[in-house]
Specification:
A five-stranded parallel beta sheet has the order 2-1-3-4-5, sandwiched between helices. Strand 1, helix 1 and strand 2 form a beta-alpha-beta unit. With 206 residues, the protein is an alpha/beta fold. The protein contains seven helices and five strands; from the N terminus they run E-H-E-H-H-E-H-E-H-E-H-H. Helices cover 41% and strands 15% of the residues.
């Protein structure tokens, strides 16, 4: 069992990384392997070219394609982002747009997901709402904690001083490990996932 934690911050070891590290520690302590994956910094936006639909990967060969290769080995995904103008960072948004658009959807369905936001002060709930939509459109159960999964601080030291935020990250990791184990136990007991339905695709122009 493994979780991929995506750092959507351009700072490799900043506040977002610190929050993800706390989640990762809790996962590891509860028997689930955790890998923090750097996505922020150089991620380009989606070109809307349709290349991925035919080739199973993005035309821009960067960290997105590297992460797509890991889908077979993970049971959950956590996306972490700093708050930029009351929204996820451009890097996190670009990564998630391309990752979820290019991914084989059958490799996302029923894997668990969670979002983490870090901020000096505000904009966290809007950021979480944005990031969680990638999971809800992909039939991925969202893991919750005892408060919205956010931390506050201007540097990693201040994040570590946010005792409530640290606890929220820790509980998030524990809950994710528990849910992954529950899903795995269900599979061993022969509990089958819902039968996939053929997608109905409409628009509002008749």
């Amino acid at each position: 069992m493994k979780v991929l934690l995506i750092n959507g911050s351009p700072r490799r070891e900043g506040c977002t990384f610190t929050a993800l590290s706390i989640v990762a520690e809790a996962l590891e302590e509860n028997g689930v392997e955790a890998e923090i994956f750097q996505a922020g910094g150089t991620t380009k936006g989606c070109l809307g070219c349709g290349y991925c639909a035919k080739n199973g990967k993005c035309v821009t060969d960067d960290c997105v394609n590297e992460a797509l290769k890991k889908l077979d080995e993970v049971d959950g995904i956590v996306i972490g982002s700093p708050v930029h103008y009351a929204a996820a960072s451009g890097a996190a948004t670009s990564f998630m747009d391309r990752f979820f658009y290019a991914a084989d959807k059958s490799k996302l369905v029923h894997k668990v997901g969670a979002a983490v936001a870090s901020a000096r002060r505000a904009g966290t709930t809007a950021t979480l709402d944005q990031l969680q939509k990638y999971f809800t459109i992909s039939e991925m159960p969202i893991v919750s904690s005892r408060y919205w999964p956010m931390v506050h601080g201007s540097n990693p030291e201040q994040v570590r001083e946010d005792s409530e935020g640290v606890q929220v990250m820790r509980v998030l990791g524990k809950n994710m490990a528990w849910l992954i184990k529950c899903i795995e136990a269900g599979k061993k007991e022969g509990i089958e996932p819902p039968t996939p339905e053929q997608k109905v695709f409409t628009n509002f122009i008749r």
